[in-house]
Design brief:
Layout lengths: L2 H32 L12 E3 L1 H5 L2 E2 L2 E7 L6 E5 L22 H4 L7 H6 L3 E5 L3 H7 L2
Parallel strand pairs: 1-5
Antiparallel strand pairs: 2-3, 3-4, 4-5
Amino acid sequence: MDPTQLLIVVAIAVVLVGLLIARQFSDYKQQVAQLDPKKAKKPREFGVYTVEEVAKHNNRDDAWIIVQHKETKEWRVYDVTDYVDEHPGGESILAHVGSDATEGVYGPQHPVTTFLLMDEYCIGKLAAGEEAAFQKSQ
C-alpha cells in the first residue's frame, strides 16, 4: 500500500471514529436532558401495592412495572405511563407492564442514567409477603 492509500484509509477511519463519538455524545446529551428538573412530572404518592393491583395497570395508557432493586433487593413499583412515548427503545417498554420488568430494566441496553431517571417514576413498593406470591406467578 503506498503512502497516499494509507493516508486515505487513516482519514476515513478518523472520520468514522469521529462520527461514532459524536453520535454517542448526542445520545448522552439526550439522556441527561431527560433528567432536567424542569421536566419533572407531578409528584407521585408513595404507596404499598399488591401484585394484583399492579397487574391491572398493563397497557400503554396505564403502565406500571415492578422492579427488584439490585442493591436493597426491595421490590419497587413504578408508574411509567408518562414515559412510554419518550422511551428510546420504543414499544419494548410495554413488554412487561403490569408485571416484573427487572430483567429488562437491568439489561445491557440501558445506560447508567436510566436508574437516575427511574426514581422519578417510583410510586411505591410491593406489600409485605407479595414478593413470594409474585415470584410464584411467574
